[in-house]
Queue: 2 jobs
Job 1
Amino acid sequence: MAKIIIHEADKRGHANHGWLDAWHSFSFASWYDPTKVNFGMLRVLNDDTVAGGTGFGKHPHDNMEIVTVVLEGALEHKDSMGNTESIHVDEVQAMSAGTGITHSEYNHNKDEKVRLFQIWIFPEKQNVKPQYNQAYFKKEDRINKLQTIASPITNTDAGLKINQQAWIYRTALEEGKTITVTPHNTNNGLYLLLVEGNVTIMDKELNRRDAIGVYDTDAVEIKATNNSEVLIIEVPMH
């Protein structure tokens, strides 16, 4: 029988630092909830708004798969591998921190905020060589269908490659449309965050920024009550 976890939007962790307004689906920084430490191999899902002319200074990461999805504005990334890139709307960045990197993330546009999701997934293998990739994903390619934005480095599926048996999708469902998501194996669970709109998943009604985790199931159906966007993260549960 399917197991379900509901994470309501207003029960996420919240920290407003002025320059950064952050909502945490899982325990992060000074916010700790023992019931929300992770969902399988999914460790972090942050919903961040970065004010104009501000950003995250240089900081280190290691042994973590980090995926950034920009919803509004542009975020500049600089890292110790020599990458200097701007990530724009509908672009996704995937970084395997591996043996260790440092990077900074900054909003150089003083008149426009940046809104983004940042996802951290525990890696399948420790201490790999750090890697960086970035790509643009057209919105029209996710209307009423799944758009794969990240997938395991060990297979040929679409999306940026990450060091874990995990897949990340986006879908933009029109009112009344239904889509089914099938995990790749019985050990994987699905964590679905409603970005915008209203949907029904596993007979549960979700509103903007609500999330549901589902595991021990063969498939999950999403039905859009109105025009909606959903971020879907499939990860091993153990």
Note: Residues 160 and 181 are 19 Å apart (CA to CA).
Job 2
Amino acid sequence: MSKKNHIPSTVVDLYTYAFVRKYKKFIGEPIPELPIDGIEIKVLGAGCPSCDRLEQDLMILIEETGVEVPLEHVRDFKEISKYGVMGSPALVINGKVKAVG
């Protein structure tokens, strides 16, 4: 898989686990619980359609994976400015900005 896909070295184990989960779901086998602790996800944005869509997509993803992850939509400009982002929506995982725009 990794020869044709760019998988950052920091998430190889998580990517492999997610791939196996998806495959087991596809073939109808029991899906093991995802061993994730301490993840916090935030969507930064004032509430534009793109921000709301990102939040909805994340809620669907969280529901599909069955992982209990806190999801927060930050709409306060002062709070958003603390992350130094210039566009929206922005995705923050464990306090680090992962995507903007």
Note: The chain is about 40% helix and 15% strand.
